[in-house]
Amino acid sequence: MAIKVYIPGPFRVATNNSSKIEGYGDDVGEVLKDVGRRYPGIKALIFDSKGEVADHVCVFINGRDINTLQNNGTKVTEGDEVSIVPAMSGGAVPFTEEQIRRYSRHIILPQVGGKGQRKLLGAKVLLIGAGGLGSPTALYLAAAGVGTLGIVDFDTVDISNLQRQILHHNHDVGRLKVTSAQESIADVNPDVQVIPHALALTSENALEIIRQYDIVVNGCDNFATRYLVNDACVFLNKPLVDGSIFLFEGQASVFMPGRGCYRCLYPAPPPPGMVPSCQEAGVLGVLPGIVGCVQAIETIKLILGIGEPLAGRLLLFDALSMDFRVMRLRKDPSCPVCGDNPTITELIDYEEFCGAPITVG
Amino acid sequence: MSVEVRVTSLLQKAIGGAKSVSAQGDTISALLDNLESSYPGFKSNVLADNGELHRFVNIYKNNEDIRYLGNLDTPVGSGDVISILPALAGGSTSCRP
Ligand SMILES: [Zn+2]
Questions:
Q1: So what CATH class is A97-354?
Q2: Which residue among A58, A242, A281, A311 sits deepest, i.e. has the most Cβ atoms within 10 Å of its Cβ?
Q3: Distance between CA B97 and CA A200 in Å, rounded?
């Protein structure tokens, strides 16, 4: 028999904005299954992967919680009204009504769902650099609801940054980048806690900082920091989402613990001065947008545990030919940090390793 | 035999400004020699004084790193695409140690 089913505001994205729909069946379970069949978006919202009503949903019949009746087996008859209500119970971090609305496009994706959104909200990601790469990464991770974003950057905003560093605005010139980043992120999503680290990463502080996070995203410009972050991530078993840019070209890769590292790819940096910096040579402003977004996607995939990470692969992007290519990247058994017989087992002097002064960027 | 060699922007100057160039040879080594004869000085961008690949430069045959094939002796044939990729570091300038 046809039973009226009330759909809450945040879920109406899946019912063409209808607040009342009909479901057929003799008990609540049958009615909900029927609704799920006819509205696949609703199915993703109300059922978990096992086909049970998800933790973030309560079901009421004529105002009574079915948990206090016979659950899914509760009989329904003509004139009953079944209501679906976003639940705030169930042990996990509860969603607010606003969060369900904010993240509805994620929650209706079967690959994300309420469960995945909770993972995002619970994730702690460290961004190295709030510059060209860090800007799009930070904004998209914040918008996606990644709950904790640490940002390492000691610099202040310069007007020449605004050509590509979209975290910062005109009125931020002269201010600390981490402060400006914190404000921009709060404007995008107040759910996100930003932890500013207004300092330069060094061999003395890197382990202590990186230890507090689940994933590290590298958007830094120089080889010394690149090797420092790599080694620290290897020692702490943290996934590293790497990206770099130059002129019109970018590279990105994900280094998963035990599956190779940046040193497996490039065992040593070029001698100082051999590679000009972006500051010296220039960089297309949109370029870090592409590479930073690739890094943001990879970070979110790692948090959710979906898809194939960009691990064991090096993505090459050329803006001028608009060409993406992928090279195979292997773990080097002779790698000094992650190989079979590592010779570097603690952080070293990276300025010395890269040859001071560092002039790349 | 003629093989396509692609370079990134860092090396374009060394081959007359092009993104890719065709070179003659049946190994990576022979291709590099051939490029050196057309573009004197080219090889120093890729090889160290000891004749080995710089540790900050990778060469790929199609999508495989030649370190896991036969290094500079890796055979190449027509249809192969060789890519020479030096490390890039660009990003934010404000996080150096
Ligand atoms: Zn390694």
A1: alpha beta
A2: A242
A3: 5
Nearest by CB to residue A220, choosing from B58, B64, B95, is B95
Question: For A349, which residue in chain B has the nearest alpha carbon?
Answer: B97
Sketch out chain B's domains with CATH numbers. 2-86 (3.10.20.30)
3 state SS for A120-185:
HHHCEEEEECCCCCHHHHHHHHHHHCCCEEEEECCCECCHHHCCCCCCCCHHHCCCEHHHHHHHHH
Start-end of CATH 3.40.50.720 domains in chain A:
97-354
> For A2-86, CATH number?
3.10.20.30
Residue of A247, A326, A332 lying closest to B63 (CB–CB): A326
A contacts of B10 (beta carbons < 8 Å): 246, 275
- Sort strands B64-65 and B57-61 into parallel, antiparallel or unpaired: antiparallel
What is the ipTM metric for this complex? 0.87
User: pLDDT by residue (tens digit) across A254-296?
Assistant: 999 999 999 999 999 888 777 666 677 788 999 999 999 999 9
User: Considering the entire predicted model, what is its pTM?
Assistant: 0.80
For residue A311, how far is its CA from the centre of ligand 1 (angstroms)? 13
Q: Does B65 touch chain A (CB under 8 A)?
A: yes
Q: Of A134, A275, A325, which is closest to B92 when you measure between CB atoms? A: A134
Least confident of A132-146, A191-205, B5-19, B60-74: B5-19
Between the CA of A341 and the centroid of ligand 1 the distance, in Å, is: 11
Dist. CA A264 → ligand 1 center (Å) = 4
Whole-number pLDDT of residue B93: 53
Could you read off the pLDDT of A134-182 as tens digits, one per residue? 999 999 999 999 999 999 999 999 999 999 999 999 999 999 999 999 9
Task: In whole angstroms, give the CA distance from residue A225 to residue A217.
Answer: 12
DSSP state of A4: E
